[in-house]
Amino acid sequence: MISVNDFKTGLTIEVDGDLFTVVDFQHVKPGKGAAFVRSKLKNLRNGNTVERTFRAGENVSRAHIENRQMQYLYASGKEHTFMDTESFDQINLEDKQIKWELNFLKENMNINIMSYQGEILGINLPNSVELKVIETEPGIKGNTAQGATKNAKVETGLNVQVPLFINEGDVLLIDTREGQYISRA
């Protein structure tokens, strides 16, 4: 058990049988009445974000999430195969379980699989990945005002807004949290 007074961003808790990670929290001490903790929690099973208020000092169960290093092998239809880098065990995840993450996954990429008591919750990507541009319009010199961008399609199928100087074949550093261009790799 952990007190809500000890909340930290990224902490994983179990509330009413569901698993949540703390996205944001705020301790509130009103002039009248008891103190409370207002929190924003992300459900690890379905990805929904909820706001929840706890009384100060209330206890919740802490959930211990296991992270295993795995390698993405291949896609077969709607299933994606991952291999444990230590035991060589293989698991399959469906498209719907890793919908957002598929925008950044390349074959032979190492990632972390999150699980709770044997139930696979999803995958943790690195904060940024290197992806090659496969399709973009040529940038026309002199056609800029300031900070002009164009659309580029990378090897995983993700469309990203990039500066005009990016060409096909360039390798880009892409932020996996927002899906945005960071820089050339």
From TrEMBL:
- InterPro entries named among the record's database cross-references: Elong-fact-P_C, NA-bd_OB-fold, Rib_uL2_dom2, Transl_elong_fac_P/YeiP, Transl_elong_KOW-like, Transl_elong_P/YeiP_cen, Transl_elong_P/YeiP_CS, Transl_elongation_fac_P
Elongation factor P C-terminal domain residues are 129-184
Q: Which Pfam families match?
A: EFP (PF01132), EFP_N (PF08207), Elong-fact-P_C (PF09285)
Q: Which organism is it from?
A: Paenibacillus oleatilyticus
Please report the stretch or stretches of sequence annotated as the Translation elongation factor P/YeiP central domain. Answer: 67-121
Question: Which domain of life does the protein's organism represent?
Answer: Bacteria
What Gene3D superfamilies does this protein map onto? 2.30.30.30, Nucleic acid-binding proteins (2.40.50.140)
Identify the keywords attached in UniProt to this record, alphabetized: Cytoplasm, Elongation factor, Protein biosynthesis
Role played: Involved in peptide bond synthesis. Stimulates efficient translation and peptide-bond synthesis on native or reconstituted 70S ribosomes in vitro. Probably functions indirectly by altering the affinity of the ribosome for aminoacyl-tRNA, thus increasing their reactivity as acceptors for peptidyl transferase.
User: The organism's lineage?
Assistant: Bacteria, Bacillati, Bacillota, Bacilli, Bacillales
Mostly located where?
Answer: cytoplasm
Its pathway is: Protein biosynthesis; polypeptide chain elongation
Tell me its family. Answer: Belongs to the elongation factor P family.
Please provide, alphabetically and separated by semicolons, the GO molecular function terms listed in this UniProt record: translation elongation factor activity
Q: Tell where it localizes.
A: Cytoplasm
User: What name is this protein filed under?
Assistant: Elongation factor P
